[in-house]
Amino acid sequence: MCALERKEWIKMQLRKRLKAILVVSVMLLATLIVPVLAAGEDVAAVSRFYNTAWAFLPPVIAIVLALITKEAYSSLFIGIVVGAVLHCEFAPVATLDAVINDGLITAIADNAGIFLFLVILGTIVALVNAAGGSAAFGRWAEKNIKTRVGAMLATFVLGVLIFIDDYFNCLTVGSVMRPVTDGHKISRAKLAYLIDATAAPVCMIAPVSSWAAAVSGVAADLDTGVSGIQLFVQAIPFNFYSLLTFVFIIGMALMQLDYGPIKKHEELALQTGELGALETESTDDGNPKGKVMDLVLPVVVLIAFCVVGMIYVGGFFGVDAWGGTDCAGDFIGAFGNTDAFISLPWGALIALVLTIAYVVGRRLMTFKEAMACVPKGFIAMVPPITILTLAVSLKTMTGYLGAAEFVEAAMKGASQSLYSLLPAVIFVVACLLAFASGTSWGTFGILIPIVTAIFPTGSALLTVGISACLAGAVCGDHCSPISDTTIMASAGAQCDHVTDACTELPYAISVAAVSFVRFIVAGFVPNVFIALPIAVALMIGTLFLIKARTPKA
């Protein structure tokens, strides 16, 4: 078949698929409209699908479609529509209202702070690029980071150092390390994995982070015998997934091990230089007078003011954002009381103003050129903002269908018969729930009260159970195509989102499998001095086994 014939054949196949989609859409619309128009818009207060397995149908449809079509926008939207249809029991007007008002508009309103942070960060990145800072850092890295192993480890180390917040981590690490990894022909899929595999896990084991604040907030009013932050700290050594992910990254880098879909992307990057960057990404090196400091200084300023913003909003300096004074002078308490949706834009806006003043003062660009970077930053962040809006809307529909209540009932029903195996069961349930819902915070928000009700106060198994809940939440969130952290990692790496979600799945499952085995053992022997070293040894052994069974390129 010649190229022209193949082109015509592809066009014909596309026309056939479009016709099929149109027919199905019409049939679906008719199914929705006809019966209800006849009976009126009588929608029950609680859907008959509430608190049933049907609650997981919308995210399952979205995830399956995303994996099949490699396209996120339509997959997520179809999932939202299906969720709204079930919630409104096939009433068309109510369904449309749920999709628009309860889903999309609410998602935009509730996440406006993060959207603003994304736009500001995109603008700062555009400014740094135009000033030549990114290109200068790339040239420096090319001279000082000699190997691909060094580039991967440098990305990992930077990710570990930025433990304040996962959103901030993903976008900052991505912006800084893209020139470095590009110079060593590391695919954007690999970079996205490194970012995603570091961001959430490090936040989940850092006592001073937005994640620690969220966990301690959920556990604050529960009968655990300790404070929320103490419970979080006690759970860190048993958080096998987060800790073993770090072991996996270091081992994978040192062994130069790639397998699964990422292996293909890495081979393509090495052989052809095709990294998988987004087509919308600018390739302009900016001002040739730019220096490394023109990248480093804005990033340091951004980190500093975001930290200041978090403790300011949390009430460290006297009064918090809600008028309270309980956390005045209390650094840890202020972190626990902060709101990242307010504090991150607060710090980022100050950093943006200072960055503009800096690049103009350095005469790297004029004020007019600096202002031209604002729409560039916004445009660069449109894809993650869109996907995040759709993902949050899908979570809303899943919540309306009572997914949390269904999981809670199932967990309590199994608690007595699987007592010693419960940490492993909790880990799996948390993985599945976070994968289906796309939220780790929502997952441990649901499961932590259940775990504390199952295990006795002060018992070692309570700590292991909490760790299993947190580890599973991170794992499922890490694997899910509709996860906000995965979306942010894709944005930071400037990598196609669905490609990122598909490629990192085998790596995450490898670590999850070892973690599951360790949670089984920890349920019977809840001793961290025994469990953690064995877990690390088992992870390293698994890496060597995978290395031996992976064919060489």
- Beta strand %: under 5%
The overall strand count is 0
Specify the helix fraction band: over 70%
The stretches of 5 or more residues where confidence is low (pLDDT under 50) are 18-44
In round numbers, the mean pLDDT is: 80
> What is the ordering of alpha helices and beta strands?
HHHHHHHHHHHHHHHHHHHHHHHHH
Account of the 3D structure:
The chain has helices spanning 3-39, 57-69, 72-87, 92-110, 112-131, 133-144, 148-161, 166-183, 188-204, 210-219, 228-235, 240-255, 261-272, 293-313, 331-337, 340-361, 367-400, 403-414, 422-437, 440-454, 460-479, 484-493, 497-503, 505-524, 528-549. The protein has 25 helices and no strands. It is mainly α and 553 residues long.
Features:
553 residues, mainly alpha, 0% strand
Secondary structure elements and their pairing?
Blueprint: H1 3-39, H2 57-69, H3 72-87, H4 92-110, H5 112-131, H6 133-144, H7 148-161, H8 166-183, H9 188-204, H10 210-219, H11 228-235, H12 240-255, H13 261-272, H14 293-313, H15 331-337, H16 340-361, H17 367-400, H18 403-414, H19 422-437, H20 440-454, H21 460-479, H22 484-493, H23 497-503, H24 505-524, H25 528-549
Task: Provide a concise account of the structure shown.
The protein is built from 25 helices and no strands.
